[in-house]
Prior knowledge:
Strand content: 5-15%
Shape: globular
Helix content: 25-40%
Number of domains: 1
Low-confidence stretches: none
Largest sheet: 3 strands, parallel
Radius of gyration: 14 Å
Number of helices: 3
Mean pLDDT: 78
Amino acid sequence: MASVNVIGLVDNTYLKPYGSTKDIDVLIEDTARYGAYAIAINPVFLRYAREYMARKGGYTFRVVAVVDFPFGAGTTELGWTPLNAIHGTRMNLISWPQ
């Protein structure tokens, strides 16, 4: 029977509405150590996480910016536009059925 690296199929998340760059450092290092597929963070930490990872190098997981979840206080357009303008990176929209 083949073994499956289950942790490689999940995202490691930090979606609290508060926190510090130290929390993101720990998230990045834990994700690298355990081999998760991606980190999922609030957009406010996106630039910091990408710069941290570029500075340290060697990371192979993805970085996901979660827009309007889990708080649900805005519209997709409200969250989507500033990210495109600020970060200029490819983004995928994932929509959950209501």
